[in-house]
Each structure stands twice: as C-alpha cells, then as structure tokens.
Amino acid sequence: MKSKREGNTRFRLVLTLGLAVVLPALTLIVINFRHVKSIKRDKQVEALIHRDFDYLLTISEKQINQRAYAVTEEARDLFPADNATAEEKSKQLDAVLAKNPWFAHVFIFDSEKEIVFRSQPAKWNDPAFRADHERLKKIYSGWFGMEGKLIMEELHKRPKPISWYGGEYKGPDGQLHYTTSSFFAFPNVPQERVLLGGASFDPDYLKQTFFPEVLNQLISKTLNVDQQGLVPGMLHELKPLESNEHRDQPLAMMVYPADSTSSKHDHPIAMSPGWGSGEPEVSRSLDDVFRGLKLGIKFQGTTAKAISDRWVFQSLIILAVLSVLMIGGLVLTYRSVNKQVALARLKSDFVSNVSHELRTPLALIRLYAETLELGRITTQEKKNEYYSIIRKESERLTALINNILDFSRIEAGRKEYDFRETDIAELVRNTLDSYRFQIEQQGFALEEQIDAGIPPVRVDREAIARALVNLVNNALKYSHNEKFLGVRLYRDKSVLKLEVSDRGIGIERNEQARIFEKFYRTGDPLVHNTKGSGLGLSLVRHITRAHGGEVEVESIPGRGSKFTLSLPLANPSTP
Length: 575
Ligand code: ADP
Known about the structure:
Layout: H1 2-42, H2 44-76, H3 86-99, E1 103-110, E2 115-119, H4 127-157, E3 162-170, E4 176-185, E5 195-201, H5 203-228, H6 234-238, E6 251-257, E7 270-271, E8 282-285, E9 293-299, H7 304-374, H8 380-412, E10 420-422, H9 424-441, E11 445-450, E12 457-459, H10 461-477, E13 484-492, E14 495-502, H11 525-528, H12 536-546, E15 550-556, E16 560-568
Parallel strand pairs: 11-13
Antiparallel strand pairs: 1-2, 1-5, 3-4, 4-5, 6-7, 6-9, 8-9, 10-12, 13-14, 14-16, 15-16
Helix pairs in contact: 1-7, 2-7, 7-8, 8-12, 9-10, 10-12
C-alpha cells in the first residue's frame, strides 16, 4: 500500500514537472536553437548589414556630389561675362584659379570667339603640366567647336546645367592619376547660345585633400545619423531585427578606381582613418561627378561575417548556459522533492514503529503486573523472574522515550549538554553492568576490554551512556546466529576510542553512511522484523559530534559490525 502511494506521489511529481516546467523549457530551447541555426543559414545578419551599407553608400555619394557641385557653382558665379574681351576673360579666370586652388584648369568657350583656357600658375613651372594645358586646350576647342550645340542641349536637359567628365590618365611619372572636369552653361545666357564654362579638379587636391576630408566627414556623419535614428524609412524598417549591434561599430570608407586593371582597391585614391587593410564589405560605382571611381565601405577592424558569426556564437552560448541552468534547476528540484517524499515515508514509518514499540512493553508490563496481583504465583523464583521482566520492559520504555525526547530537543535546537570531568572507564563499566543481566540472558557472550589509566575527560555522562546503550541495543537487536558483543575502551594517542562490535547481520556498504540519518533503517528483512525507530544512530552521531568527536562504522554483511566513537582527550599531553 505504502509503496503504491509513494509511487503515485512520485508519478504526480514527475508529471507536474514534465508538463509545467520541462515541456515549455524544452520547447523554448528547441525553438531558440532552430532560430539561431536558421539565422546562421540565411545569413540574415550579414544581409542586414549589407543593406545598411548600401544605403549609407547611396547617401554618401549624394553628399560627395553635392560638395563638388557646390564648389563648381560657386566658381561659375565668378566667371567672366559673355561680352568680356579675351584679355578680361583671362584675368577673371586667373582670379577664379587664385580663389579656387583645387582647380588645375578653367576655361570658357564661346562659339563666336576663341576658347580662353587658363591653368594654375603655381604649377606652370612643371613642363608636364604645361603640356597638359596645351593638349586639353586643343581637345576642348576642337570638341566644343564641333559638338557645342549638342552639348548645350544635353546640359539644359539636366536638373542643373552641369555635366562631368572623369577618368584616369597616365602622368609623366608613369603613374595613373584621377581627375574630373565640369562643363557648364551659364544661367542668364540664352539657351541657343553656345557659351560653355568648365573647370578641372587638380588630381593631387582630390587625392590629398578632397577625398580624405569628405570620407572623414562621411563616416562620422553617417554614424551620427544612425545613432539619432534620424534617417527615415529604410533604417527604421530594419530596426526590429535582432542584431543592431553592428550599428555601433565604427565604419571606414575608401575611394578607388573602378576598373583600371592595375589599381584595384589595394591602390586606393583615398581612405578614411581606421581602414586598416582588407577588402570593402560593400562597394558602389560612382556616377555623375566621379564616374570611374568606386566608394567602398567596411567596419573598422572587423567584417560583417565576423559580426554575424560572433552574434550567432553569443546566442548559442547564452542558450547553452540557460539550458544548463534549467536542467541543473530541474535536477535539484527533483532531488529535493524526492528527498522530501522519502522523509515523509520515513516519518510515517517512524510513527507506526514507535507506537508499536510503546505498546509491546506496556502490554507485557500490564500482563505480568496483573498476574502478580492475582497472587497465583507462589514460588519466589517465578516472582523474581516477573519482577525482572517488568523492570526490563520499563527500562526499554524509558530508553525509547529518552531517545524520542532527545531527538525532539535536537530537532528544535534545544538540546543542551552538561560537560563534567568524568572517569569514563567507570561510566562504561556501570552502564554495561545495568545491562549485563539482559545481555547474558539473551545468550550473548560479552567481551569487555577497558584499558586502565585512561585520564578523566569532560563529557556529558548521561549522553555518553545513552550513546553506548543505543550501540549495545543495536548489537543485540541485529545479531541472530552468532551472539557476541564486544565493548572496548582504549586510548589511541590523543583520542579516546569506544568500540562496540557484534557478529550479527552487518550492513551493506552503500547503506553504511545513511544509517546515521534520522529515521533511516536498512532494507534488510531482518531489520524490518525488528522493532526500531531509526533514531538511535542519529542520536549517537549528534552526541559524539557535540563532544567534538566522530562515529564510524565498519561492517561486513553477514559477518558483523563495529561502531567506533572517537572522542578527543582534553589534554593530549597527559600520559
Ligand atoms: P533502529 O535500530 O531503531 O532502527 P538506529 O538508528 O539505531 O535505528 O539504526 C538504524 C539502522 O541501522 C537500523 O535500522 C539497522 O538497519 C542498522 N543498524 C544499526 N546497528 C546495526 C548493527 N549493529 N548491525 C546491523 N545493522 C545495524
């Protein structure tokens, strides 16, 4: 019956744990693992980063172009009027060059007059520059002479009448240089009139000043836009995705020639600080102003792949730790509940054992007392026997009640010990004396070995006697075939040892530690048939520990057991 009820309790417990905790927890873990795995497969994080990058590159190009347009429009306003003389034009263009040191050449073409083509005087000493001047002047006047009208028409179709011509050319040093030139119409001149102005950027200026500045500004600006969440549309739409971590990563940008074979991104025109090395994560071919160039972007010191891998890795680690914690928690809960169930069983066993143990001696005492009262017993010998039975049974009762009282005091934390200087040899002898009759009557051979010269020790007399009585009682209870009881008191250096041994049923190895737990009784069927509360040894242990000592058991099943109390001697130097 009992085990069935217990089985039910355990089953209910497992079911509750299973339904309420394990199932949801497992589902959560499985779903999360799948989620992380699918993200890894889809490279969602990487894709998300690339989308952000694309967007940043688009707005960056716009800003770069705006700057080039602004510079050019500002210069155009300083260009000479269409009716100026060639000399005046030269002068004014020189003034434009002086104000805009980033231009290498400026020119104005009038189909009715000559082209006026001026170049930066600071570079005039360079023969290659002069050669450039001559070459461009010739090319432009020829080209505009033939196609001027067409170019004007095209210009006026654009939102702003400025068009660009960019590309690389080989300098006299054999190196490739990139520049871009603008061609523009003037606002207040009739559209039919072919009047064209233009300016070429100085390649050195682009490389050394313009791009470095603009890139620097871009990487700080794009980040700011990001952090303030000011960018409408696209970035917001991306926000709900799990990993926005990359948005805090510092960025780096680079400008490099788009398709020249020799100069890929390892020959950049300019790069922002923090580019370090490596390829751009995403790149964009520039159009309009800087056609022929590419703008590349990446993270400083890391890659989108590294970020996405790290994110997946972190998520997996967190999940793993959570799973371990959850499993650990479950195991602990299960174990603690199991322990409670076992304790509850032990307690109920205890109650039935104790009531049984109380009833038997009481019944015997009553029976013998009544028999004596009736006066039917005539021989003194018989009477003595009955008296002794009554005394023995009351002693058993007292011992049991003492155990229970002690136990409840210990449980309530109220147990107090009264330590006094004691001749322990005498204490052991006296205790055994009061049991000698009972021991011998039960057919036990008592072997008593108490060493002489044991110094007095500070102990609680009553408690030590009770511990000894419990051990002796156990030896008597759990011996069936060979009835032997050995009690030894001796000194081992600074420790006093009290040994109680028997040749009884013994204790299985795996139960030897547990017998000192409260209520615990071994699974042996002989134990089951013997009365007991499971309290004795737990009291023995409590008492010994209160004396600063320890109790140990050595036992071989079927051969017997030996319990040893070790009590420290107060003054080890005493001989
Ligand atoms: P009780 O004897 O009332 O059951 P104890 O706490 O004294 O409780 O002992 C706990 C258990 O340890 C016993 O039920 C028994 O199984 C085992 N035990 C104790 N002493 C002996 C012994 N001398 N020989 C064999 N088993 C023992």
